[in-house]
């Protein structure tokens, strides 16, 4: 397949490129979750992705905020998409889920942290975008 990296890109903006994370088997839990959402929910996330991609910031904490440990959340209600910032002006979306409670589920944050670690290790080894 030509230019495999393009599959990863959710949005390329003036300030940031936002990418879906893919595991070593080529699976993306964040993209898979996004694709099962209805058009309205997808549009809500895409507006947030476009805003941060083009301007570099989302000031509204009800739409985007730090969850600690360098994990951030896009918050298109009632869904959450966790992500992290990476060198080269990238934001990597790790996982998405339906948020049922006020508090971020610990297992979702732990999943995002594991994915962040995996991504960083595979990029460092030079085999993430293979």
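Sequence proposed for the structure above (130 residues):
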């Amino acid at each position: 397949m030509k230019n495999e990296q393009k599959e990863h890109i959710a949005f390329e903006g003036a300030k940031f490129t936002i990418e879906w994370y893919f595991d070593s088997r080529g699976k993306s839990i964040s993209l898979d979750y996004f694709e099962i959402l209805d058009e309205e929910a997808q549009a809500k996330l895409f507006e947030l992705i476009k805003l941060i991609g083009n301007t570099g910031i989302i000031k509204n904490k009800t739409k985007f905020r730090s969850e600690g440990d360098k994990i951030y959340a896009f918050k298109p209600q009632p869904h959450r998409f966790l992500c992290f910032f990476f060198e080269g002006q990238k934001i990597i979306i790790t996982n998405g889920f339906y948020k049922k409670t006020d508090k971020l589920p610990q297992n979702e944050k732990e999943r995002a942290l594991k994915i962040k670690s995996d991504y960083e290790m595979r990029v460092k080894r030079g085999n993430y975008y293979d």
